[in-house]
């Protein structure tokens, strides 16, 4: 169970995550943390090498740092392993490293195979300065335990490492603290966390303040996850966030306008962005069969149907209750932007929307798009006026395959792709 929770926390690629969260950059997450009193590694974002050098000079004036950490800003973890985090020991290296990172296609375990293009870097202060005592790195995250309906703080002494590997191989090094939503985080819980991390004295008190401020930021920003890896204990016993991975609840953005402005659509799947602007619920997947469905439950069942037929869904697409010709055509065009799509399965239940109206929309959209549609189309319509809808499809003269039963639709998909 613990390893499963770590995977939910660390790999944000599920349908639920894509629908209901907004990812932001590290520097933006640190801005939120700092606004709630969390001590963070200070840094300044730069869009080009000239701005990077100016940021480094400003950091030296403000913090006294002589070394600088140049961090690629993309919506993915594992940036260091992919060459997206480098230490610069002077301004010349700041220029050189920034030139190399900005514009690169950064590949990490959490990016698509082709990687993500880096548009900006964060120039951060060097916080691993020498001192009499050693530094320590911890892992800490705040997220929702969906199984129990409670927020939880997950933490470990093994910060800065692959937390999935830690959870799988040494689960005893992962701690969790569940929080009663009726009373919130209690002082004894923050002290328990500091104790389990092996801290004492000033570092203990600093960690208690850090945990309390971190949880306040999580609640106050309507986030679904705050992940800090690592949380650093400096050589002079300060506790600060060196990194910040933040997911904000998309459904709460109406009351968080300043956070809504942090959205960077360049980091998002462009087909998904276009679909959202058109009012369609769309998630890009890795299969070959495009789906056009009304209703999330039916969409999930349709994806299972495709897998039952021996294939993989290319997307999740819910057209909603107004599947007219224009909306269907928009959905067609969005699905066909994926070059991997080899067939499209339309599965509509006519409750509020009549099946004959959907069928006419499919036919009209097909006529409008002409040669743009080069893949088989299978249409299954059930519900109000389903018989009339089938007649419309069958008599349209278009190469559209119709089905009535689930199994029949699966067989049609199989036949079309075999």
UniProtKB/TrEMBL annotation:
GO cellular component: cytosol; succinate-CoA ligase complex
Listed EC numbers: 6.2.1.5
Residues given in the record as Mg(2+) binding sites: 229, 243
Pathway assignment: Carbohydrate metabolism; tricarboxylic acid cycle; succinate from succinyl-CoA (ligase route): step 1/1
Any Pfam family matching the protein: ATP-grasp_2
Enzyme class per UniProt: ligase
Family annotation (InterPro entries): ATP-grasp_succ-CoA_synth-type (IPR013650), ATP_grasp_subdomain_1 (IPR013815), SUCC_ACL_C (IPR005811), Succ_CoA_ligase-like_bsu (IPR005809), Succinyl-CoA_synth-like (IPR016102)
Cofactor: Mg(2+)
GO MF term (any one): succinate-CoA ligase (GDP-forming) activity
Annotated residues for binding of substrate: 294, 351-353
Classification via SUPFAM superfamilies: Glutathione synthetase ATP-binding domain-like, Succinyl-CoA synthetase domains
Family named by the database record: Belongs to the succinate/malate CoA ligase beta subunit family.
Physiological role: Succinyl-CoA synthetase functions in the citric acid cycle (TCA), coupling the hydrolysis of succinyl-CoA to the synthesis of either ATP or GTP and thus represents the only step of substrate-level phosphorylation in the TCA. The beta subunit provides nucleotide specificity of the enzyme and binds the substrate succinate, while the binding sites for coenzyme A and phosphate are found in the alpha subunit.
Protein name as it appears in the record: Succinate--CoA ligase [ADP-forming] subunit beta
Organism for this UniProt entry: Flavobacterium croceum DSM 17960
């Amino acid at each position: 169970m613990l390893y499963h929770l770590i995977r939910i926390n660390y790999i944000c690629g599920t349908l639920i995550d894509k629908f209901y969260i907004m990812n932001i950059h590290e520097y933006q997450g640190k801005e939120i943390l700092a606004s709630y009193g969390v001590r963070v590694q200070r840094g300044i974002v730069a869009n080009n090498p000239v701005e990077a050098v100016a940021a480094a000079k400003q950091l030296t004036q403000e913090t006294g740092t002589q070394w600088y950490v140049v961090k690629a800003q993309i919506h993915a973890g594992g940036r260091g392993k992919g060459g997206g985090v480098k230490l610069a020991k002077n301004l010349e290296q700041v220029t050189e490293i920034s030139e190399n990172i900005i514009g690169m296609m950064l590949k990490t375990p959490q990016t698509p195979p082709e990687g993500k293009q880096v548009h900006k870097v964060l120039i951060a202060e060097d916080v691993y300065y020498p001192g009499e005592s050693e530094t320590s790195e911890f892992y800490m995250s705040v997220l929702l335990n969906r199984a129990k309906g409670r927020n939880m703080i997950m933490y470990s002494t093994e910060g800065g490492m692959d937390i999935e590997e830690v959870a799988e191989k040494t689960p005893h090094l992962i701690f969790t603290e569940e929080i009663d939503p009726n009373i919130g985080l209690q002082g004894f819980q923050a002290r328990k966390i500091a104790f389990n991390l092996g801290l004492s004295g000033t570092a203990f008190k600093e960690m208690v303040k850090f945990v309390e401020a971190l949880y306040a930021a999580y609640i106050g920003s309507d986030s679904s996850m705050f992940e800090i890896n690592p949380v650093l204990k400096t050589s002079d016993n300060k506790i600060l966030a060196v990194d910040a991975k933040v997911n904000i609840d998309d459904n709460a953005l109406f009351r968080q306008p300043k956070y809504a402005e942090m959205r960077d659509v360049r980091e998002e799947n462009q087909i998904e962005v276009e679909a959202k602007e058109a009012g369609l619920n769309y998630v890009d997947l890795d299969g070959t069969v495009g789906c056009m469905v009304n209703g999330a439950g039916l969409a999930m069942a349709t994806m299972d149907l495709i897998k039952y037929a021996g294939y993989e869904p290319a997307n999740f697409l819910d057209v909603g209750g107004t599947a007219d010709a224009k909306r269907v055509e928009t959905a067609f065009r969005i699905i066909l932007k994926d070059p991997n799509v080899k067939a499209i399965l339309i599965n509509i239940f006519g409750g509020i929307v009549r099946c004959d109206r959907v069928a006419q929309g499919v036919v009209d959209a097909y006529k409008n798009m002409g040669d743009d549609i080069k893949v088989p189309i299978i249409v299954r319509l059930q519900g109000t006026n389903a018989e009339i809808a089938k007649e419309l499809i069958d008599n349209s003269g278009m190469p559209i395959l119709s089905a009535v039963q689930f199994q029949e639709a699966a067989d049609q998909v199989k036949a079309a792709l075999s």
